[in-house]
Design a protein that fits this description.
alpha/beta; 8-stranded mixed beta sheet; 34 helices
């Protein structure tokens, strides 16, 4: 990185490269952008000028007459346009778009692109910029080149440190591989983190000179002159000449950051120094001139315009509610993946009308207001479960407007609806509660009253029928799941979404926990937000996770509808807590008959089988085949064994796979190896040491201990010749099913959920004997039964596979979709059974018919209700 100090008359190198400058402007900033572009056209007309108008539609032309090329928001090709303007307030969203402007103009063929904030005015030619960009790839201006006075006034050095070393109102780039790579990173970062905590886009620019080696800091004091650097740069202005700053150098442009044209005596809303010390005459004259320029461009008219993007107008929400939304995993997933449904504002509005997590008798928007607006909970103690009508009246009269909610948020709804006895009970208990004194006693009475009311309401809710659908209507299905986790539970949830997509069921995939977004199959999921309109809830949460899920999403239990839990387990003895958790659901779906039998006997619930739905397209399309070269697997017969030590290594038995391999092949060979794919080996360090010890003298036994992304795991399956799974039990056996679907050989224990689809024809099955578990390990208890594989039976299978490989077999994929086809059929059958629960019962009518003897008889004929 190079830093230079520009002079007044640097020679400008002639160049044939195309130069473009752009700015971003919401409708209320059109006048500012016109001042910027008019001043630039006057002092440096060689730049091709572009302005991206950030609005829902293009709007009327505001930059005609050759002033600039007006472009729409759609020209930026945002992958997440609706969700970005819901995630961010408008100022934050606009700042997050800067990298897309550079990207768009680079794609249009410009070699050099300059960005300027709309609240800038140019006062002389940008000679140093063009000169610098002829030699460097990225150009920045620093906030400070000298310390600020230690006078206790704002801004301070500490505040500027938080704001970042460089100001985001100016940035220039050449189109190079390094700058494009920087833009990739900046786009990803600003997708969710263009927030005040990082001073929006600005603090991230600290990394720019680190990521782009050919960067330059432009220290010329006439660039980006503003309230933060004015104390040590100064300003003088003689009428008829360009303003000048430190060293008598010309001001290239002034940045009127946070300047209010209605208050020309205040330099910036962020500054107190010049407010306390007074404005120098030259600065005051500059501000007056800027106000005149704004007025000449119609600032009075344009300042009334709104962007009409995101959560605005009737859908507007206060800042505290947006901050709460940003912490919600379901909304985070929507923001990352991009919204692909109807209007996102309506979906968020429906989401905020669902029961609040802390106060499920209130909608979320009122529950969050109760906790966030000072004094509201003391005035309306709704944590008692009462005073809801009073809170609704406050919201209707003044609360909606004063708190910053849009007009579409209702004051009354399901939370204020009550029948006659509820109304009398509420009034009586509220009068009783108001007479209670003392904080501790009051809280105790609140709990007592809330318990009484909730039990009565819960009893009343249970009498409500589930929602009904017509015979030709498909139900809307919620799928709650841990989609972003690299575990089988997440793959099951993703498989359910794939099945619903294939079968044509309307659905909403709801992410219930934040996770790694590195690509665990989530890119194909259209994430959404829950709504009251759903007919069925599919809950991909194990029995021990279900209480947390129900607490996080109280809407699941709030209204009557079929609820289905998707559970998997590896033992014949049901896990502790399964029976208690099953009380919240009507059915349990399992990935195998092995599971269904266990949970059916333990809970008494209806159990159905739905095999994991495999993403066959992703297995072929997304597999990262480079892992074969990295691990040295190319050209070798590779036997793969996988085990997660957090799920008890003795369930997967990699040690038995090692022993079978060593016995099958006593001597190492260059063209053959055993690959042990192990994760979280710290979970059982002793077992791992035994593995290492037994493999110590075998160079053809390799360990892969990384938790790799899904794409690389698929690449590993492609690179492997065969899978060896000498497990003690499997709930389903996802790697086995995937390898069989790829048409590759599998050696597996003939026990567990994999026996739903493993047969003697497609799998080389190994016998077993049932034994008690020898020790407690996490969820597996000592004394419970599982299989002990007869690993010696795997030896001839391994030898046969190797011989077949030597003869040219097993070197190409032979995909087989029968497991997936059967999975789709299972989902279709299970969903039809749920649909029957939602369809109206047939009405019997009497049909009178005449018999052959002439006597009349009555026959009941079922007719569906309209």
């Amino acid at each position: 990185m190079e830093a230079i100090r520009g002079g007044e008359s640097s020679p400008m190198r002639e160049t044939r490269k195309r130069h473009a400058v752009f700015t971003l402007a919401t409708p209320d900033r059109i006048a500012h952008a016109r001042v910027l572009l008019t001043s630039l056209a006057r002092h440096d007309p060689s730049w091709e000028r572009h302005v991206f108008v950030i609005n829902r539609d293009d709007g009327p032309p505001a930059f005609s007459g050759g002033l600039a090329i007006q472009r729409s928001l759609q020209d930026l090709n945002l992958p997440d346009l609706p969700s970005r303007f819901a995630w961010y307030e408008i100022f934050e969203a606009v700042n997050s778009l800067k990298p897309y402007g550079f990207r768009r103009l680079f794609a249009d063929g410009f070699d050099v692109v300059l960005y300027l904030d709309a609240d800038i005015k140019v006062y002389s030619e940008l000679l140093e910029v063009r000169e610098a960009l002829s030699q460097h790839a990225l150009l920045l201006t620093p906030h400070l080149t000298h310390p600020l006075p230690p006078d206790g006034l704002l801004p301070t050095d500490a505040i500027i440190r938080h704001s970042g070393s460089f100001n985001g109102g100016f940035l220039a780039m050449r189109n190079t591989p390094e700058t494009r790579s920087f833009l990739d990173w900046w786009e990803r970062t600003l997708a969710l983190d263009c927030l005040p905590s990082s001073c929006h886009d600005q603090a991230w620019l600290n990394y720019a000179p680190c990521f782009v080696s050919d960067s330059m800091v432009l220290r010329h004091p006439g660039y980006n002159l503003a309230y933060w650097n004015l104390p040590h740069r100064g300003l003088s202005w003689v009428e008829g000449e360009a303003p000048r700053c430190a060293g008598g150098l010309p001001v290239r442009f002034f940045h009127f950051s946070a300047f209010d044209w209605r208050k020309p005596e205040v330099l910036s809303g962020w500054d107190t120094r010049f407010r306390a010390l007074g404005l120098p005459p030259a600065v005051s004259a500059l501000l007056q001139d800027y106000v005149l320029s704004l007025r000449s461009e119609g600032i009075e008219q344009w300042s009334q315009a709104g962007a009409r993007l995101g959560l605005a107008d009737g859908h507007a929400i206060p800042g505290f509610l947006r901050d709460w939304l940003r912490q919600e995993p379901a909304f985070q997933a929507v923001a990352r993946a991009g919204w692909q449904g109807g209007p996102i504002e309506e979906a968020i509005g429906e989401f905020l009308l669902l029961p609040d997590r802390a106060y499920p008798w209130l909608p979320t928007f009122l529950g969050r207001a109760l906790d966030s607006i000072p004094g509201l909970r003391q005035t309306f103690p709704c944590e008692s479960g009462f005073f809801l009508q009073d809170l609704a009246s406050w919201f209707e009269s003044v609360g909606c407007r004063d708190a910053g909610f849009g007009s579409l948020f209702p004051s009354h709804g399901w939370w204020t609806r009550e029948c006659g006895w509820e109304k009398h009970l509420r009034r009586g208990l509220e009068r009783w509660l108001r007479r209670r004194r003392g904080l501790a006693r009051r809280q105790a009475y609140f709990r007592l009253a809330r318990t009484l009311r909730n039990r009565l309401l819960e009893k009343n809710r249970k009498k409500e029928p589930p929602p009904q659908i017509s015979i030709d209507e498909k139900p809307l299905i919620h799928v709650y799941g841990y989609f972003l986790k690299p575990i089988g539970l997440a793959e099951a949830a993703r498989g359910t979404v794939r099945a619903l997509q294939r079968l044509g069921y309307p659905h909403r995939a709801i992410c219930v926990q934040a996770g790694d977004w590195s690509g665990e199959g989530a890119s194909s999921i259209r994430f959404s937000l829950p709504t009251r309109r759903a007919h069925i809830d599919l809950l991909h949460a194990q029995w021990y996770l279900l209480p947390d899920l129900l607490k996080q999403h109280p809407e699941i239990l709030h209204w009557p509808k079929p609820r289905v839990a998707f559970w998997a387990w590896e033992l014949l003895e049901a896990p502790p807590g399964a029976r208690e958790a099953s009380a919240h659901v009507e059915e349990i779906w399992c990935p195998s008959e092995f599971n269904a039998k266990v949970f059916g006997q333990a809970t008494g619930k209806t159990t159905r089988v739905a095999w994991h739905n495999l993403d066959l397209e992703s297995m072929a399309r997304d597999a990262d085949l480079s892992i074969a070269e990295e691990l040295g697997l190319a050209g070798k017969c590779v036997f793969l064994t996988a085990a997660d030590f957090l799920s008890d290594p003795e369930r997967k038995n990699p040690l038995l796979a090692l022993r079978a391999y060593v016995q099958a092949f006593p001597k190492p060979a260059e063209d053959r190896l055993l690959l042990l794919k192990l994760t979280d080996v710290e979970g059982d360090a002793d077992y791992f040491e035994r593995l290492r010890s037994e493999a110590a003298r075998r160079p053809d036994v390799r360990f892969c201990r990384l938790r790799i992304p899904r794409a690389r795991m698929l690449g590993l399956l492609h690179a492997s010749t065969a899978l060896v799974s000498l497990h003690s039990s499997e709930g389903f056996g996802l790697p086995i099913a995937e390898m069989l679907s790829l048409g590759k050989p599998v050696v597996a224990t003939a026990y567990g959920g994999n026996m739903d689809y493993c047969t003697a024809e497609n799998t080389r099955l190994v016998g077993y004997r049932v034994v008690p578990i020898a020790r407690d390990f996490r969820v597996y208890r000592k004394g419970a039964l599982w299989a002990e594989p007869l690993w010696e039976e795997a030896v001839p299978y391994l030898q046969a596979i190797y011989q077949e490989w030597l003869q040219g077999d097993h070197r190409k994929l032979r995909p087989n979709a029968w497991i997936n086809d059967r999975s789709f059929a299972m989902y279709a059958e299970n969903l039809r059974a749920l649909e029957r629960l939602l369809q109206p019962a047939p009405i019997e009518i009497q049909s009178r018919t005449m018999s052959a003897t002439g006597s009349a008889s009555a026959t009941a004929v079922p007719v569906s209700a309209p």
